[in-house]
Amino acid sequence: MKKLAKRAPIGTGLLLSLFLFLATGKNVQAQSHGLVGVDHVGMNVPDMDSAVKFFTDVMGCVPVTTIGHLPMDAAWKKKYKIHPHSELERIVSLRAGNGSNIELFQYQSTEANKEQPYNDDMGLNHIAFYTTDMPETVAFLKTKGINVLNDPIKNMAGPTAGETWVYFLTPWGAKIELISYPDGKAYEKTSPAVKLWSPKDAEAPLKITEMPAAQINAIVEKHLEIWNAKESQQRTDAIKEVYNDQLVFVSPGFESVGNDKLNKFIDDLHANNAGYVFTHQRPIESHHNLARLFWSFGPPSHPDAITGMDLFIIENDRVQSLYVFLNAPGK
């Protein structure tokens, strides 16, 4: 079975971070109250040693931490719905390549149900492992004596068309899924604002398809026209053409996601600076789908009353992120 290669360390500089957003196709998304993503998936197992051996030898996981017997009083068991006479013998956490970690629990209990739940039982869950080579992985599982439940099934219609999947059983009878979609899924071709996370994206090498400089310059010039338009309605169609629907806009004192908020920001800018116009300070600079526009903003009598620079991240012919830097007065 192929294992995922290690990724090179990533620098912390702003521009390198922007490169990575650009290269991997990820849009910055507003997180909810600090939530970032899935850290681990938990699974109860009847025998920890054999379960760790399976996930290590067959699935290529790496055990990282082990916790021994944990005492639980009656109040704890009642609160977390654990049988009164059960004991928590061991917890093992494993690294599973480029994806969620796996946390295994072994309980000692005479009261717990030892039968695997049916597929339609409440609370059933499963783990899906992504593979870059479905036939090879299925063949490998069979050499290990694993019970593979079906031949690879490829979804041919609907939003997940392009996805191939297989279910198999662990030695203790839990179902695990193999999944693969090397050419992506059908829904991705609609350019959705948000795509499902995938370990295949995390494994993808840094790759940037450069747009021609003339095309980038045209987008930046259109951006300047949008910001000089005084009426919101004048900007609406052009905004859809130039910016991604979930444009990330960051300027000193203001951040937003989405074009409606940006349009309102430009409205307020003109309302508070009547007669001001944006003009070039020097030619547009660009490389690797990044662009810099150095601008002046002011009335005809003082055209450089305010100066600054816009940094663009451009992908799929639209601006994905826009960062504004303001110069100190007099610079």
UniProtKB/TrEMBL annotation:
Residues 1-30 form the signal peptide. Transmembrane segments: none annotated. InterPro entries: Glyas_Bleomycin-R_OHBP_Dase, MMCE/EMCE_epimerase, NTF2-like_dom_sf, VOC_core. Keywords: Metal-binding, Signal. Residues 37-181 form the VOC domain. SUPFAM superfamilies: Glyoxalase/Bleomycin resistance protein/Dihydroxybiphenyl dioxygenase, NTF2-like. The keyword DNA-binding does not apply. This is Catechol 2,3-dioxygenase-like lactoylglutathione lyase family enzyme. The lineage of its organism: Bacteria, Pseudomonadati, Bacteroidota, Sphingobacteriia, Sphingobacteriales.
